[in-house]
Design goal:
The protein is an alpha/beta fold. The protein is 40% helix and 20% strand. The protein contains 16 helices and 20 strands. The strands form five sheets. Strands 12-13-14-11-10-16-17 form a seven-stranded mixed beta sheet, with helices on both faces. A six-stranded mixed beta sheet has the order 7-6-5-8-9-19, sandwiched between helices. The mean pLDDT is 97.
Length: 469
């Protein structure tokens, strides 16, 4: 079992240029991260390419066994990893936050190991026998975000490794220590060179996306960066899985029970203090129950404690960085300037340490307001009235993104009928953002393309090959 001190020490480079990471809740130093160069990336890719054939030759059973051992290693070091994650990212230990995220890392490693991917006989008619196989791609480049740095890294690396690939990860510059620590633990159970982390800036990310030895890039982040990766990858025709920006809509039908759904609505919107790609970011509520939903949701939100993540009482934390704090502040101010009604929050305290923005609910807001039309990625939820389901569906579908959505109703059949009309990769019923390693996940429209998780996620990390004869 790793201690916090040993976990942090393992992330500290022995030499070279470093960068100090600060706790977004307190401003205090957390640790030193390496600042890698393009030359460091080249060495990591070369090592991965050299190690990958032997890893692929082990076969699915041996690779799955290694992932299971890695999951055990993550669990043995879970508390130390959670403390580091809380300090660097800002999320509290409790609630669906740091301990939850580390637990998800172990769960997804196990799921990737356990998911069956069999050879498929597509034709066998006595004259033609055709089988569909999936071969390793080679070296996969993974570029991750700062909001769920450990968990999303595992979403990328676990299926890639299971399918016989080597992986080079570039974490966000905001949260490199968390990913370095996690990979150090996982690498206790992997051959050298198969999994590595390169902590660099934009030039490193751009080189990873264009590198001829990288056969696939997996990216989670903004749509703008995703478009840049598409352009960079074009000359080498790389395979891509892109999970890009979202501005998820939730539609509350008039037969819903406001008190019964209020807490699930809250966590759908405010998990990780709203810093989640598939969080509920705009809520459409029917006139008949609008005031009741506003009242019930405000009551739940007001009771959720926000503060420093290492305080066991807190379930909401700071925004991870100043830039995101300023985005949320700007969008909430636009809502206030428009005359929208502030139900809760909206006034961050000046002069306090950390990037804390209070839990904010905004009612009676126009659908075209920037807080609705732009992704806020923070603890501020606009609540929009509607009169007909057609109107709600039209507003939900009006944007050029479609990662997730949700429908809330006491009638599951009615909810599913509305869900089928929404343009999103996943539509949840009476919940929002609940991902499952067995269930495919991906976006529609400009929220990206490609699927993760389950059998489809494994297939996406392989090259399909048909053997015909």
């Amino acid at each position: 079992m790793e201690t916090y001190a040993s976990i942090l020490t393992a992330t500290s480079p022995a030499s070279g240029t470093t960068r100090t990471l600060l706790d977004p809740a307190t401003g205090e130093p957390v640790g030193e991260a390496p600042v890698h160069t393009v030359e460091d990336l080249e060495r990591a890719i070369a090592a991965a390419a050299a190690a990958q054939p032997a890893w692929a030759a082990l076969g699915h059973e041996a690779r799955s066994a290694a992932l299971l051992r890695a999951a055990d290693a993550v669990e043995r070091s879970s508390e130390a990893l959670a403390v580091l994650l809380s300090r660097e990212q800002g999320k509290p230990l409790n609630g669906p936050n740091a301990r939850f995220e580390v637990g998800a890392c172990a769960a997804w490693l196990r799921a990737a190991a356990a998911t069956e991917l069999s050879t498929e006989t597509v034709v066998d008619d006595g004259e033609t026998h055709a089988e569909l196989h999936y071969r390793p791609i080679g070296v996969v480049g993974a570029i991750g975000p700062w909001n769920w740095p450990m968990m999303i890294s595992v979403w990328q690396l676990a299926p890639a490794l299971r399918m016989g690939n080597a992986v080079v990860i570039k974490p966000s510059e905001y949260t490199p220590l968390s990913v370095l620590a996690l990979v150090n633990v996982i690498n206790q159970e992997l051959p050298e060179g198969i999994l590595s982390v390169i902590c660099g800036g934009r030039e490193v990310g751009a080189r990873l996306a264009e590198h001829p030895a990288i056969g696939k890039v997996m990216f989670t982040g903004s749509t703008a960066t995703g478009k840049a990766i598409i352009r960079s990858s074009a000359d080498t025709v790389k395979r891509l899985t892109l999970e890009l920006g979202g501005n998820d809509a939730g539609i509350v039908l008039p037969d819903a029970d406001p008190a019964a759904i209020a807490e699930d609505l809250f966590w759908g919107a405010f998990i990780n203090t709203g810093q989640t790609c598939a969080a509920l970011k705009r809520l459409y509520v029917h006139d008949d129950i609008y005031d009741a939903v506003c009242e019930a949701l405000t009551k739940v939100a007001a009771a959720m404690p926000m503060g420093v993540g290492l305080d066991e009482n807190n379930v909401l934390g700071p925004l991870q960085n100043k830039a995101q704090f300023e985005i949320v502040s700007r969008l909430v101010q636009a809502a206030k300037d428009s005359g929208a009604r502030v139900l809760l929050g909206g006034n961050p305290e000046a002069g306090q340490p950390g990037y804390f923005y209070p839990t904010t609910l905004i009612a009676d807001i126009d659908n075209s307001n920037p807080l609705v039309a732009q992704e806020q990625f923070g603890p501020a939820l606009p609540i929009i009235r509607y009169s007909s389901v057609d109107e709600a569906v039209a507003m939900a579908n009006a944007l050029d993104v479609g990662l997730g959505a949700s429908v809330w109703s006491s009638d599951p059949a009615r909810a599913r009928a509305v869900a089928a009309r929404i343009e999103a990769g996943t539509v949840w019923i009476n919940k929002h953002g609940a991902v499952d390693p067995r269930v495919p996940f991906g976006g529609a429209k400009q929220s990206g393309y490609g699927l993760e998780f389950g059998v489809e996620g494994l297939k996406a990390l392989g090259v399909p090959q048909v053997i015909n004869g």
